């Protein structure tokens, strides 16, 4: 909701726990709830903006107004929900094919036809090598400056500069190869070369019905 021109593909899992007619019913219910949620968000933003514009001293709220207007301009494209049985390899392949089909759609992703400079691929390949090397810790965390120095040791990347690496990391972050939270002050100097480690950590910390599980412990 905060990323301009976002494309969201809802995925419903645990199809194996439902009857066939239930799946369609739940699909329609989820899509209807998403539509209602977006409509409510749009209405709330408009309400907040009107309140700020109608205040007695609107000049004091310029920063807040600009943030709200920026959020209001962020459009979301919601694709049709894909229902899958995660225990079925065929369903996983079906989901993969659906994602690839959407990603190749130039109307949804105009940048899909953009040609990247060769250095992007070279840095990507070098980062993959570093991430898979024996010296890389399991958590896959690496200091930005240290990563730059490691990449610069490659003969064809000797002239790689800080700003170019930042641009390349933004691209690699967008495609999911690495995770780099440059907008978070305490994390801007850390690059996560193994995003799956973060997923494992989140699975340990963020759990369904976690509060109820903790409360049930005597």
TrEMBL record:
Protein's name according to its UniProt entry: MFHA1 protein
Gene3D superfamilies: P-loop containing nucleotide triphosphate hydrolases
């Amino acid at each position: 909701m905060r990323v301009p021109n976002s494309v969201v593909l809802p995925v419903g899992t645990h199809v194996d726990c439902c009857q066939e007619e239930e799946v369609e019913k739940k699909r329609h219910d989820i899509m209807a709830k998403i539509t209602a949620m977006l409509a409510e968000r749009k209405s709330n933003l408009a309400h907040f903006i009107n309140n700020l514009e109608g205040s007695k001293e609107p000049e004091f709220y310029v920063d807040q107004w600009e943030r709200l207007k920026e959020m209001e301009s962020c459009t979301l494209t919601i694709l049709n929900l894909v229902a899958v049985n995660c225990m079925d390899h065929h369903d996983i392949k079906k989901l993969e094919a659906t994602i690839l089909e959407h990603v190749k759609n130039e109307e949804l992703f105009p940048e899909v036809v953009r040609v990247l400079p060769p250095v992007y691929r070279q840095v990507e390949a070098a980062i993959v090598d570093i991430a898979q090397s024996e010296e890389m810790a399991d958590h896959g965390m690496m200091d930005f400056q240290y990563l730059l120095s490691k990449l610069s040791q490659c003969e064809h990347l000797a002239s790689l500069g800080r700003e170019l690496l930042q641009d390349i990391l933004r691209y690699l972050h967008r495609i999911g190869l690495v995770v780099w939270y440059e907008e978070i002050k305490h994390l801007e100097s850390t690059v996560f070369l193994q995003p799956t480690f973060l997923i494992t950590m989140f699975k340990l910390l963020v759990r369904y019905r976690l509060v109820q599980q903790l409360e049930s412990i005597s």
